[in-house]
Amino acid sequence: MIDLSAPQRQSPLAIVFLGLRIFRSLGIAQIVIIVLFIARAPLNGPLAVLPMVIILGFGGFSTLAWWRYTFQLVDGELVVAKGVIRVARLNVPIERIQSIAIDQQLLHRLTGLVRVKVDTAGTKDVEFAIDAIARPLAEELQRQAATAIVAPRPTDGTLPPPVITEDRVVFTHDGRRLLLMALTMSPLTGLLVLGPIFALGGDFFDRVPDAGPDNVTFRWWWIPLGVAVFVVLSMALNTVRVFLRDWQLTLRSSPAGLRRTSGLLSRTSTASSVDRIQVVASAQNPLQRRAGLHSVGLATLGQGDLSLGGCTAVQFATVSTLAAVTPIDALQLDRRIHPAEIFLAVRNTSVFCVVLAGALFAFIGWWSLLTLSAIPYVWVTKRVSVANFRWGLHDELASSSKVISSATQQALLHKTNSVDVTQSIFERRRGVATVRLTTAAGAITIGMIPAAEANAVRDTILHAVETDTRPWI
Q1: 0.70 cut: is pTM over it?
Q2: Beta carbons within 8 Å of 22's beta carbon, 6+ residues apart
C-alpha cells in the first residue's frame, strides 16, 4: 500500500503537462499573436534567441511549479501545497470530498500517467487537479477518499487510519452492449454535427461544382433520402461517440462507495461514496424500452459523473440496491395526480396557439391555422402522461412517468434539504397543490395532488429528516 501520509510529487513528466496548461491559459488571442510575431518578425541578431528564451521560460516556470506542488493525507485531510511566487496551502477533509475522477487522455496514456480531479462541491468546477501521476498512486488516493470508513475524531485530536476495503466488479459492458446502446440512442449527435453544416451551408454549396443543368427541379424522393442519410449518419456518429466514451464501461463497488471507469482513447474513473448519492433516476426512450435497456443516473454533489447507460433491468435493480434505495419495481407506486393537469396544459397551449395563429395570419393566411394542430397533440400526450404517472412515499419519495419515453426518480427522505408545498391560483381553486423535495443534487416534484395529501407528504418528509440518524451527505 502506498503511504500517502508522506508528501507526494507528480511525475517529472508533469512538467510538460504543466507547461501545456500554462500555455493554454494565455488564451487563444495571445497565443495567435505570439505565433504570428515569431513567424513574421525578422529574427535577426538578438531576436534570434527569442524562441529559445520563450521555451526556456515556460520550461523553467513549469519545472518550478512541479517542484513546489506536493500533496499528502494528514490526520484525515488532503493537504495540497502549490505555488511558484506565492505558496498556497489547501486543506480538504477527506470526508468532504464528493468525488475523485481519474482521467487518462491520449497523451497521458502514451506516458502511462493519469490526471486526478478532486471535487468537494464547494465551487462550480472541480476544486483542484493533479496533472500527471502514476495510476497506482491515483487509485490509492481515490480508494481512500471514496471507500474509507472515517471514524469519529478522538478527543486528543488524532484520527485513526481509515479502514480500506477492496472493491468488486459489479458489471462490465462489452462491445455488443455498447453497439446496442448506440443504436438505441436519440440522434442528437447527428444534429450537433449537421448544425455547423447548415450554418455554413451557403459557403459550402457555393464551392461545390455543378453536376447537372441549372434547371434541376425538386424531387419528392429527396426528402426520404435525406431522412435516411441523416438516420444512418446519426447512428454512425452515436456509435463512434459511445465506443470512445464508454469503452469497457465498468462499475465497481465497495461497502462504502461506487467507482465507474470507461473510455477508449481517454480513460476516466470516477468514484463517490454511497452517502453522496442524492437522487437515483432512470430513463428509457421507445428503442431502449424495446431493447430492455435503461439509462441510469446517480446524482451526486459536484461534478462527479456516475451515469450508467445500457443497463438491463437486473443491473438497474443492482445499482439501486448499491445506492441504498429500493429497486423501483419493488416499490408500491399507487398514488396518482389530479386530471386537472390535462385541462391546464390544453388551456395554456390553446391560448398560445390562438395568439400565434392570429399573429401569423397576416403573413401566411389560412395556413396559420396549422398551429392549432398542437392542441390535440398536447391533449393526447398529457392525457397519457396523467394516466401513467405514479408516485409513492415510503422511506423515499419516488415517481414514475411514461408517455413516449419513460422515466423514474427516487430520493431517500433523510437526504432532503428542503420540502415545499405550493399552490397556484389554478390549483387553489381546485384544492390541489404541488410538493417539491429538494436534495443537494436534484429535486423531485409531484404536482396536482390534493392539498391535504401534499401537506401530509411534507410533514412525513420533515419527520424523517429530524429522526433519521443516517448521514445525508
Answers
A1: yes
A2: 58, 61, 62, 65
Contact call for residues 94 and 79 (beta carbons, < 8 A): no
The string of pLDDT tens digits covering residues 53-64 is 777 776 787 788
Contacts of 89 (CB under 8 A, 6+ apart): 79, 80, 81
Tell me the C-alpha distance between 230 and 371, whole Å: 26
- Return mean pLDDT, the chain: 82
Q: Higher-confidence residue: 183 or 37?
A: 183
Nearest-angstrom CA–CA distance, 117 and 141: 11
Distance CA 323, CA 300 (A): 11
Alpha-carbon gap, residue 12 to 69, rounded angstroms: 11
C-alpha cell at 303: 461534478
Higher model confidence: residue 32 or residue 330?
330
Choose between 471 and 25: higher pLDDT. 471
Q: What is the bridge-based pairing of β-strands 99-104 and 257-262?
A: unpaired
Q: Dihedrals φ, ψ of 239, to 5°? A: -65, -45
Listing DSSP states for 233-290 in one string gives HHHHHHHHHHHHHHTT-EEEEETTEEEEEE-SSSEEEEEEEGGGEEEEEEEE-HHHHH
Q: Are 304 and 101 in contact (CB under 8 A)?
A: yes
How far apart CA 102 and CA 308 sit, in angstroms, is: 17
Cβ atoms of residues 308 and 298 within 8 Å: yes
- Burial string for 388-426 (b: 16+ CB within 10 Å, else e) reads ebbbbbeebbbbbbbbeebbbbbbbbbbbeebebeeeee
Contacts of 235 (CB under 8 A, 6+ apart): 182, 183, 187
3-state SS of the chain: helix, strand, coil percent to 5? Answer: 45, 25, 25
